[in-house]
Specification:
The protein contains 10 helices and 24 strands. By secondary structure, the protein is α+β, with helices and mostly antiparallel strands. The protein is elongated, with a radius of gyration of 31 Å.
């Protein structure tokens, strides 16, 4: 039985390591891409990739296809150069192309490109790498489906700053600055379309609204669309861990009121294409730590869709058909989120959008761990110390169960000399030795399998914390002390893994040693094997393991001393 317990512990440890290693993929390092600033001037004119056609299934176009024939354009944008519109807020720098009104570049001012760079993280761009947020109006009178090309909006100025915006009171009664960037397109027959981007101080979501003012003599018909267009470039948010690099999900995602969170790989945008009607839904492109999402207004039923066009992956939505009678006006809009995966903000934006912080199948445990980390971080203001305090809390919660297991292991350690004597006496008679050993276990009230319990309890917590460290953008580039300047990356000096190996060795010495020589050699190698594994794991995860081992060493030492005293008192009596 003792040998089976040993093999169970060994197997559990290898399963833990194997599950973790599966989450990593080998890499030979990334060359830093030099970010180029957005083009100040863009060329207006027909972009065939953006032009819609009447064919809904075979069109090689970026713009979603309306099932109605577009009317002839009453006003055609001239082929002239135009300047991008720049917007600066406390959260990001944004550049908007007035031709079509797409966001063609977005830089996150609150997140660095890397831990060694003071450059902002580039979320959206349209140069060497294409990843943009598009929106427009299609349909019978929609200018974005005009054969002459997408509309060229007129703007009052080409540079906006949130610092110059007016202040308004939010729902909590607090004053916030709100910056509106209006863009106007007029047709020859009297229809005025005002596309407005609204930016709010302290918020990542961007409100996009269309006001159709119909001063013509006929009804205006069209649909709003919003979509994300991306090429197949690798994930720029992926953490560089040296020899091993985290393999996180990069692809599409969507949600409805009934199905809150669904993944859709880029390669499946056509084969298993998204085709859903919903109120209160969303579509997104997910990457490591960051997400871009369109959230249609919940007042209308949106059609969620996906497709691959050439080398690009597109996921988006269409509104229902909008009818604006002559002499009337109509407003329709949606919200764009492009930034870090902050769970509290995403949860308030749309149901299920916060699940883009993907903790895997252990998400219930991971969410509890993250809540604990946030609680301690609010107190100490450092994620490293928060991990230490969380580890102590977890050990206290599991103390009653682990103490019972460690007490049984301590008894196993105390009776080890007796078992060795029995092995020497009955070594050739395996059946007799097993009978005597079982009798000894029963007499001493020892359960050899109880030694598996501490590891089985720790394994899901360890795996869940791994995903918390890797998926929570709050811990991205989070420093602890001295040389540990990024808890989500490996220890650059390998000090923490070596300390982990030392604590694991000490803990192993406090456990009962295997009677089988070969088994004993394998167990002596375990600290070395796990030290090698931990060399390339996040420093925060190794820190958790060190603290957990250290507390376990103290707990086992006291229990072992207590068991030895009890055994001595029993023998003397």
């Amino acid at each position: 039985m003792q040998q089976w317990a040993r093999f169970a512990i060994l197997g559990a440890m290898f399963v833990t390591a194997y599950l973790l290693i599966l989450a990593w993929q080998q890499d030979y390092g990334h060359k830093a891409n030099v970010e180029t600033p957005p083009a100040v001037v863009a060329q207006a004119g027909n972009n065939s990739a953006d032009l819609p056609t009447q064919q809904t299934n075979t069109a090689a176009t970026d713009i979603p296809q309306s099932n109605v024939t577009p009317a002839a354009a009453a006003n055609t944008a001239p082929s002239v150069t135009h300047q991008l519109i720049s917007v600066k807020t406390d959260k990001y720098n944004v550049w908007i192309d007035p031709k079509g009104g797409d966001i063609v570049r977005l830089e996150l001012l609150t997140h660095d490109k890397s831990k060694d760079s003071d450059q902002p993280f580039v979320m959206l761009q349209n140069d060497k790498h294409v990843y943009i947020a598009q929106s427009g109006l299609i349909g019978t009178n929609g200018p974005d489906q005009s054969p002459q090309g997408r509309p060229l909006y007129e703007v009052a100025k080409t540079a906006y700053d949130l610092a110059d915006a007016k202040s308004v009171n939010n729902k909590d009664g607090k004053a916030q600055q709100v910056l509106e960037v209006p863009m106007v397109y007029k047709t020859a027959d009297g229809v005025e379309i005002i596309k407005t981007f609204s930016f709010t101080q302290g918020d990542f979501p961007i409100a996009v609204n269309y006001r159709i003012v119909n001063r013509s003599n006929a009804n205006w018909q069209g649909q709003m669309f919003g979509q994300l267009k991306r090429d197949s470039a690798e994930d720029p948010g992926k953490s560089d861990q040296g020899i091993f690099t985290l393999g996180t999900y990069l692809g599409g995602a969507w949600g409805t009121q009934d199905e809150h969170y669904n993944k859709l790989k880029f390669t499946n945008f056509n084969e298993d294409k998204l085709n859903q009607q919903t109120k209160g839904g969303w579509v997104a492109i997910v990457q490591h730590y960051f997400v871009s999402a369109w959230v249609p207004d919940a007042s209308y039923t949106a059609h969620l869709e996906s497709r691959n066009t050439g080398d690009y992956h597109i996921i988006g939505f269409r509104s229902p058909l909008v009818n604006v009678p002559a002499g009337k006006q109509y407003d329709i809009g949606a919200t764009l989120y492009s930034g870090p995966k902050i769970q509290s903000e995403l949860k308030d934006l749309a149901a299920g959008l916060n699940q883009t912080v993907d903790y895997g199948w252990l998400w219930p445990i991971a969410k509890l761990l993250f809540a604990g980390l946030q609680f301690f971080h609010n107190i100490v203001g450092n994620w490293g110390w928060s991990i230490i305090l969380l580890t102590i809390l977890v050990k206290l919660i599991l103390w009653p169960l682990s103490a019972k297991s460690y007490r049984s292991m301590a008894k196993m350690r105390v009776i080890a000399p007796e078992m060795q004597r029995m092995k020497e006496e009955f070594g050739e008679d395996r059946m007799r030795f097993s009978q005597e050993m079982m009798a000894l276990y029963k007499r001493e009230q020892v359960n050899p399998l109880s030694g598996c319990l501490p590891l089985l309890l720790q394994m899901p917590i360890f795996l869940a914390l791994y995903w918390v460290l890797m998926e929570s953008v709050e811990l991205r580039h989070a420093p602890w002390i001295l040389w540990i300047q990024d808890l989500s990356a490996m220890d650059p000096w390998f000090i923490l893994p070596l300390l982990m190996g030392a604590t694991m060795f000490i803990q192993q010495m406090l456990n009962p040693q295997p009677a089988d020589p070969m088994q004993a050699k394998v167990f002596r190698l375990m600290p070395i094997i796990f030290t090698v594994f931990m060399l390339f794991f996040p420093a925060g995860l190794v820190l958790y393991w060190i603290v957990n081992n250290s507390i376990t060493i103290l707990q086992q030492w006291f229990i072992n001393k207590s068991a030895e005293k009890e055994r001595a008192a029993k023998v003397s009596n």
